[in-house]
Amino acid sequence: MIWKLALISIGLLALGFAGIAIKILVKKNGKFAGTCASQSPFLNPEGKACSMCGALPEEQCKSES
What percent of the chain has pLDDT over 90? Predict the structure, then answer.
């Protein structure tokens, strides 16, 4: 019984990783859209500038251009 559950869990994890890998391969230049942390109110509740590109929450990510 435990082996069945372990195999199903491993299979679902493998399926998730395969889905992410396919998404990266299909996306242009392998980049995810909207990865600038300053754009997310959950990750940036204080409204600080992005530490990677310096964009403020109301600005578009500067690393995309």
Answer: 28
